[in-house]
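Summary for the steering committee. One of the milestones for this cycle was to obtain a three-dimensional model of the protein with magnesium ion bound, which we needed before selecting residues for the alanine scan. The sequence and ligand used are listed below.
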Amino acid sequence: MKNWFSTKTASLTEGDIVKTLSDVAIDGKDIVSLGMVSAVSVKGDKVSFLVTISQQDVSRLAWLESACEKAVRTLDGVKSVSVVMTAETKTDEKGGTPMRPPPIKKAIWNTEPLPHVKKIIAVASGKGGVGKSTTSVNLAHALTKAGKRVGLLDADIYGPSLPRMMHLEGKPEVVEGRIIPIGAYGIACMSIGLLVGEESAIIWRGPQATKALAQMLRDVNWGTADTPLDVLLIDMPPGTGDIHLSLVQQVPVNGAIIVTTPQEVALADARKSADMFKKVNVPILGIIENMSGFAEPSTGKIHAIFGEGGGKKLAESSGSQLLGQVPIDITLREASDNGIRYEDRAKIYESIAKLIL
Ligand SMILES: Nc1ncnc2c1ncn2[C@@H]1O[C@H](COP(=O)(O)OP(=O)(O)OP(=O)(O)O)[C@@H](O)[C@H]1O
Ligand SMILES: [Mg+2]
């Protein structure tokens, strides 16, 4: 297996980046000593790192991102800089000061494909609750119906939903040190909720969570030589945090689908999500506008409850395509939340499935 340890690059090292970033200060204190910089990686002339900002400084996020980028660009041999900004939201036990995740000392970019997995697609969003899990599950069903062999990985370590949405029960078997995914409706499923219970993972901090993700990616028998997966769909947590960076560091992701609701306020966040994937060179396969109007059951009249046009706007600004618009549908909600396959009105997901493979 081929790994890239940034410190081994001939001209530019991780240390150079950290040293340069220690010249960037917020309120007179340098951001490295403050523990805000982590996951520094140098791959050839490409540099990436994560900057975690506290809630109270969140208004300065854009300024800080640009200051970091500018500082690193001054270094010889740097061609591209990916700064992934994340806002710290957790607080310590007393509910007081925000905790900063301990900086990750060595970032490893693993470009080795997952064995017997042909394609990896992340389903992401800026905001929570916009329908990533619903989309992942229904797309998995549609792809399976189209004859594809599909895997579904719940990367939402802090709020796993697949056990409920795919009606998964029991603990996965471990055979010769490898985890066997749980099959449901012909789909190979894995979720941290199956390994530790839906409640436990919530208290995990960054490094534990990224370790769990690594296990679910690399220690699971996703496919076999005879039965390779055509696609592994990854149901991401909301936002652009350490799980996102960790995913793209651990496996080559072929593309991302961004889910958004149609209103302006959701779009700003969805744009950040799209930008993050672009920065780490993961192509945006397209946008799905979810909760896109409500069809009155008696008259069929569409009410644009969350506004309209957002998905199209985002597709244009991110240089991708609008894959589909999924209306608010009570049957869909009931089916997804109860782990039942949604047959009746699944046409929209079938047409999206055709566009992504
Ligand atoms: N098109 C839709 N029509 C009706 N209900 C929907 C639709 N899409 C999603 N829902 C419902 O909205 C809720 C949130 O959806 P879901 O869990 O898929 O969002 P999410 O983006 O994965 O959330 P989180 O960020 O918490 O992971 C669920 O109860 C789901 O059934
Ligand atoms: Mg979810």
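Key point for the committee: The first strand starts at residue 3 and ends at 5.
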